[in-house]
Amino acid sequence: MLPAGLLGSSVVAASSANLGPGFDSLGLALSLYDEIAVETTDSGLHVEVEGESAGELVLDAGHLVVRAVERGLQAAGASVPGLRVRCRNAIPHSRGVGSSAAAVVGGLAAVNGLLAQAGWTPLSHADLIQLASEFEGHPDNAAAAVLGGPVVSWTDVSGLPPKFSAVPVRLHPDIRLFPAIPEQRSSTAEARVLLPAQVSHQDARFNVSRAALLVVALTERPDLLMAATEDVLHQPQRAHAMPASAEYLRLLRRYDMAAVLSGAGPTVIALSTAAELPAEALEYAAANGFAVSEMTAGEGVRWSSGTAVPS
Ligand code: HSE
């Protein structure tokens, strides 16, 4: 049992999964961060949320960050007499920018702050990826939030639970990131139902080549980003459920900007060496409720002990 009075905190990035062809495999952390602080108390559970979705989230043991904290403690073989959890949310929810992965990774990493303060061994990056991916069922967002930058992740389903792994990939310094986050929300679970259980060999072959090419484009050859971000496995199937995103994506690609759905959408992200988006794209985004900004690749999760949030 850990004593009361310990404080662990974390800073964790938003992320964009899939990046077009890399369904459930490729991810990219974005420079937009949630902050989580966890304190051990004498008894009970107290949860506070400010920022994105404050007022909409349950403030009890069902809160995703609390569930992640409990899971992290369990994995470390620790328990606590009581907990106070504070979340400062900057990552919009239900938009395809990895808010749930950030909540889980941030909660697990904040546990590391508690463990370190008590002299226990913290969870490793591999542990964080495994535990966080078990929540999500796939490692793309979770691995990006843990490692930062672009990642390639994969799943070994030969055992139970599946084993989730990931490696970081260097992002070419000329590639700029322009996420467009709409007001409209979409549930990942509902967006997954739109996908067929089976795909043709031809479509699988198409995506395998583009996903492999995308690793080359992201690291060495940004000039190949247009071809490398083509996808036939999930974006066309999801387009009718998020028509404004599908239209914005088409518009950007007409201007030779490599645009993809971010995760299950409805956010769209453009990856480009151009300094700015075409005026017509910005007009379309503004008229259709998208907030467009430029972000950089996000850092991997940081955690610390004894302070409110790591600086
Ligand atoms: N790979 C997932 C999907 C990302 O597209 O459904 C959402 O977390």
TrEMBL record:
One annotated GO molecular function: homoserine kinase activity
Gene3D superfamilies (UniProt xref): 3.30.230.10, GHMP kinase, C-terminal domain
Enzyme class, UniProt record, top EC level: transferase
Entry's EC annotation: 2.7.1.39
Top-level taxon of the source organism: Bacteria
All copies of domain GHMP kinase C-terminal, residue ranges: 227-281
Gene Ontology cellular component terms for the protein in this record: cytoplasm
Compartment(s): Cytoplasm
Keyword hit for Nucleotide-binding: yes
Reactions listed under catalytic activity: L-homoserine + ATP = O-phospho-L-homoserine + ADP + H(+)
InterPro entries named in the record: GHMP_kinase_C_dom, GHMP_kinase_C_sf, GHMP_kinase_N_dom, Homoserine_kinase, Ribosomal_Su5_D2-typ_SF, Ribsml_uS5_D2-typ_fold_subgr
Pfam families: GHMP_kinases_C, GHMP_kinases_N
A biological-process GO annotation: threonine biosynthetic process
Keywords, alphabetical: Amino-acid biosynthesis, ATP-binding, Cytoplasm, Kinase, Nucleotide-binding, Threonine biosynthesis, Transferase
Pathway the protein contributes to: Amino-acid biosynthesis; L-threonine biosynthesis; L-threonine from L-aspartate: step 4/5
Residues covered by the GHMP kinase N-terminal domain: 64-149
Family membership noted in the UniProt record: Belongs to the GHMP kinase family. Homoserine kinase subfamily.
Function, in words: Catalyzes the ATP-dependent phosphorylation of L-homoserine to L-homoserine phosphate.
Protein name: Homoserine kinase
Biological source species: Mycobacterium cookii
Native organism taxonomy: Bacteria, Bacillati, Actinomycetota, Actinomycetes, Mycobacteriales
